[in-house]
Amino acid sequence: MPALPHPLTLEERLLAENRWRARRAAIGESMFLGAGHAALLLLAVWAWLRLDAGVFAAMAARVELQATSATLAVLVATAWAMRQRLARDARRHARSSQAALPIWRETQRRRDTRVRTRFALALTLGAAAAWALIALHDAQAATRIAAALRFALLAAWLAIVFVPAPPLGPDRLDAASARLARVPRWIDRLAARDLPHLPQWWWQRAASTWMRGRAATALGAGLLLAPSEAVAVVVPLTLLALMALVNALDAAHRLAGEVLRLLAERPPGARRLWRNLWPLQLVLAAMAALLVLGVLHLLGAGVAVLLATAAAILLIAQIDFLLALVLRRRPERLPIVRLQTGLIAIAVAGAFAPLLLVGAVAGWIWLLRRVLREDGDA
Amino acid sequence: MLEIAGLRVERGGRAVLDGLDWRVERGEWIGLVGANGTGKSTLMAAIVGLVATQAGRIRVGGHDLAEQTAAARDLCAVAIAPERLPDGLTVRQLLELVHAARGLPVAAMAASLQLAERLGLTPWLDAFLGACSLGTRQKAGIVAGLAPRAPLWLLDESLNGLDPVSAYAFKEFLAEQQGRGDTAIVLATHGIELAERLLTRVCVLREGRIGEDVDRARLDAIRADPAHSVEAVLVAAMRHS
Asked: Which range of residues forms the domain containing residue B115?
């Protein structure tokens, strides 16, 4: 049998072509998005450069001491992440429109190679970017870290190439789907009466989305930090958990549009959606806030900073949630509006920071009133 | 074409199919009927290896599904369920995807476009699937799924959502295909009125197995008897459970 292209590879290619076409058709918007993201990136680099450079020499010394354990940790984490990616790809295929197509051995081998290559590329680029960011501060420390971790990178590549794909029969895929479908019991307590299953569905979809997201694969990066002191263990793990929660929140907010399709016969209005989803949304946001506060506390932040941070996280999450509800019929607009709002917030903060709080609260009230005004079902 | 022996499939700890034996030959157009939850869709999915089986053997065209999955699936054409279609592709792109993934000859695309024309899908070829109605997505799933013209066609509730004109055209198309004698068509459906005129065999799923198998001779006998209707016979068979 000739080596046919894998349907997922074809689908990805066609979807990318369509996205590119849509981006070209809306050239003004695309340029704004590009410029906006570039501005945010520059701001992030600027903030990074303001960190104390002395940290990196200490970090280099620690990495040199723990090079062997770091290599081992990277090997295990990369092997695990690679298997997860291959399993996820198989699950994605099993759920796709082409699940019943014959996939010949050579076709599957090529698909696996593609998944492995992309992972290796992402890992290498990530390592290079991390190295460049450290080198911007302290070139000598960056060189020492790179030298200490050269075998870790090699171990990661070897794991990516040689780790076998997990068994992918329908029994395994069924079990994995069942695991993802499990919902914690406390979710039921947050459900309203009129759409009792909506929070469960929201949780399931958000959970499966973050499993596909960055948090799982960031584990390797987290393990790179040597566990020589409590903060060095707790902070990266807490940050990973935070990434997972932020991913879940982001996924949950973006699902507002999908609810309309799910309940196509009688799509609920914004007010009804808000009423059914706000408790779970608040719990997720509060969990994210708690994690951030934990990290800040470990780093020695004062009570005022902690309170302000908690309020900011809850407010930002609320505004994003309400924006997603308002834009539920045009979910593709959400990233653009998020970027616009973020840029405006940064500009306002740069000009006169206290105004940002007033603006954010006013924006939240305005959005809430707009959502609550939409009384009837859509 | 299709042989199933002792098939057992459990979903959520419950045996949906239990000890199911079944044979399907080329030239048959089988209606697979049964009450809700009797396992029609599970059986259709099991035939192409999309659900885990606890026991039994499935052979398609002599290929064991568990051992030679790709070879067995290569003999199947499965209409794609509308909810599985990717929103971000156009109908034409979906067809191109299926044709490329199965390595079909150029002439096959002409045949697919012809079927699209018969089903009234042509005006929607360049529309995004996400923007199509349920009926249009159903048609797209049928045309894409049947593109390979493999010897075993599996259609799970594929008439759902089709407008009467398209449904009629599709039934005529299936009847023509059955008349050629080289294809086995299995249609899981609640539309048992099809049995009055078109189907060559009707199998009633009951308690996890084929509870009633109404073959061509028996169908012809019932059709010839003005005192009976196939629909009434099948409803009685389903009620039996």
From this structure: 85-145
* pLDDT band with cut points at 50, 70 and 90 for residue A223: very low
Residues B167 and B138 in one domain: no
Q: ipTM value of the model? A: 0.89
In sign, the C-alpha dihedral spanning A41, A46, A51, A55 is: positive
Domain boundaries, chain A: 1-181, 183-378
Is the separation of the CB atoms in B202 and B193 below 8 Å?
no
Is residue B39 a contact partner of residue B15, using CB atoms and an 8 Å limit? no
CATH of the domain at B31: 3.40.50.300
Please report which helix (H) or strand (E) contains residue B56, including its range: strand B55-60
Do B107 and B169 lie in a common domain? Answer: no
Residues belonging to chain A with any Cβ–Cβ distance to chain B shorter than 8 Å: 1-2, 4-7, 10-11, 14-15, 18-19, 94-105, 169-171, 173-174
Identify whether residues B180 and B235 lie together within a single domain: yes
B219 and B164 within one domain: yes
CB A18 within 8 A of CB B89: yes
Which tokens belong to A333?
A: 């607009």
Q: Taking CA B85 as the corner, what is the angle to CA B82 and CA B89, rounded to the nearest 5 degrees?
A: 135
Q: How far apart (Å, rounded) are the C-alpha atoms in residues A354 and A350?
A: 10
- Reported pTM: 0.80
The reply to whether B100 touches chain A by the CB within 8 Å rule is yes
Please count the structural domains in chain B: 2
